[in-house]
Design brief:
Chain lengths: ~300, ~190
């Protein structure tokens, strides 16, 4: 009888988690991607309205590895992936731990549509590698990951599930509430869903859609109502990027949130970044979905409360 | 004053003038969006269920609830009357608010009454209450049907399963939390 029974009984889940991570690595290495490690403690993460970094000895623990990975893109590295820890202060719930594992990958010469295809191939490859055979049991339903995935715009999803248009939701300042209460639970049931073309104001580092600049070339992946990944066609205009960072920083200052300096080296090098797309996928959540776990607590070795 | 960070199951807050008990709670954060705190609450007076989503920075008043030691006096029409042991003040409670507790309440029973403002909204009984069996069939000696319990009606009208040896007129101890027979009263 072991003392830490709660930890001992996670043996099977942690074994599966390790195999899933190996499958992810295999997919990218076979696809000609370079696995990189960038510093976890950085002077300036990208300032975003609703993401609070954890201060660390004058700098910050990264909220995502995007700043360093995009500098590598700008320096000519065309295909990059990284599996690393990220920190976001105050995020704790059934789907959140403040220190979590992120998979990010970047690819030069493609856009968000290209990344949707690649993301679909990645998840299929992991599901196959794990021997799950394309049908995932999750929260009482079955998700067919082998069938063609659904692709829907944010606009269509608001009309179909939200009971109001995307524009109305923004106007009435209830975009997030409608998304969480009415739309998210209906995404990715039966088969995985990409929801794309977010309002321009909801993609601080994303390129605007050339034929409709009211939306950004950004998508999210949902499986069984769970948000798994966020991606976009990268903004490569340093002037525009600085303006957007300044507006996010002003919002943070107005709300009295922690001040984050602008990532000046990134802004200086951004002009050299080729047209690219990048995506961040929550590894803990992918493991949750593949193992039909009810809480993120079941798929990590330690929750913050257990330390 | 509570903040959204205090929200959890079991918290009691005041909302639109009524006391609410938080019965479910979930932290949500849609991609790149703000943190949202989704709660399901039960109105402690009407029993109605309410879903509300809160943002960071919102605050709540604790529910102004008070528990007072009283005794149960009598029932008239659909109202139950209790008396405060210290002040002798009497309060009335609806049958709805008394709920299943009515099955175990006999005159002069000491209870805790939950007060919201001036209103009595709930009652907590002692865990064990002695009640008299007013009707049950006699135990047929040599009964080999194998049944190890039989129905019995208590003085409150409540019917429960008791062991076969319990006789009409006997006092038994009932667990008010489960409504089950506990033991017979000795003496």
């Amino acid at each position: 009888m072991t003392v830490n029974w709660g930890l001992a009984r996670r043996r099977e889940a942690l074994g599966a988690r390790a195999r899933i991570i190996q499958e992810i690595r295999r997919f990218f290495i076979e696809g000609g991607y370079l696995e990189v490690e960038t510093p976890l403690r950085i002077p300036a993460p990208a300032p975003e309205s609703h993401i609070d970094p954890v201060p660390a000895d004058g700098w910050f623990l990264q909220t995502s590895p995007e700043i360093c990975m995009k500098r590598m893109l700008a320096a000519g590295y065309g295909r990059l992936f990284q599996i690393c820890h990220c920190w976001r202060a105050g995020e704790r719930g059934r789907m959140h731990v403040p220190e979590f594992t992120m998979l990010e990958w970047y690819r030069a010469g493609t856009d968000y549509a290209g990344l949707m295809d690649e993301c679909e191939r990645l998840v299929r490859s992991v599901v196959e590698g794990m021997g799950f055979g394309g049908k995932l049991a999750f929260r009482g339903g079955t998700i067919d990951s082998a069938a063609p995935w659904e692709r829907t715009t944010v606009r269509d999803a608001f009309v179909k599930h939200g009971g109001m248009t995307m524009e109305e939701a923004l106007e009435r300042d209830v975009f997030d509430e409608v998304m969480v209460e009415r739309i998210e639970p209906r995404l990715g049931n039966g088969r995985p869903t990409f929801i794309h073309d977010y309002p321009a104001c909801r993609g601080a580092l994303a390129r605007l859609k050339p034929d409709d600049p009211t939306v950004a070339e950004r998508f999210e992946l949902y499986i069984g109502g769970v948000e798994l990944a966020n991606a976009f066609s990268e903004l490569t205009d340093p002037v525009e990027q600085r303006t957007r960072f300044e507006s996010e920083a002003a919002f943070r200052a107005f709300r009295g949130q922690i001040t984050i300096p602008l990532p000046e080296n990134f802004l200086a090098e951004l002009a050299e970044m080729p047209p690219s797309a990048g995506i961040a996928l929550g590894v803990d959540r992918l493991v949750m979905v593949l193992l039909d776990a009810a809480s993120i607590d079941e798929v990590v070795a330690f929750t913050p409360e257990e330390l | 004053m509570y903040s959204v960070a205090d929200l959890k199951k079991g918290l009691k807050i005041t909302l639109d003038g009524d006391p609410y008990l938080v019965i479910a709670f979930e932290f949500s954060k849609p991609g790149k969006g703000q943190a949202l705190y989704r709660t399901k609450m039960r109105n402690m007076i009407t029993g109605g269920i309410l879903d509300r989503t809160y943002r960071s920075g919102e605050t709540f008043e604790p529910a102004a609830l008070e528990e007072r030691q009283m005794q149960y006096l009598y029932k008239e029409d659909n109202h139950y009357t209790f008396m405060d042991n210290q002040t002798f003040e009497q309060v009335q409670m609806s049958e709805e608010a008394v709920g299943d507790s009515k099955n175990f309440m006999i005159d002069n029973l000491p209870v805790d009454v939950l007060i919201f403002g001036e209103k009595a909204i709930g009652v907590t009984l002692p865990n064990f209450v002695n009640l008299r069996v007013v009707q049950t069939d006699p135990w047929v000696k040599g009964d080999t049907s194998g049944s190890d319990s039989k129905p019995a009606t208590l003085e409150t009208g409540y019917v429960l399963r008791v062991p076969p040896f319990i006789e009409e007129g006997e006092m038994i101890v009932v667990d008010t939390r489960t409504g089950d027979y506990s033991t017979r009263v000795r003496g």
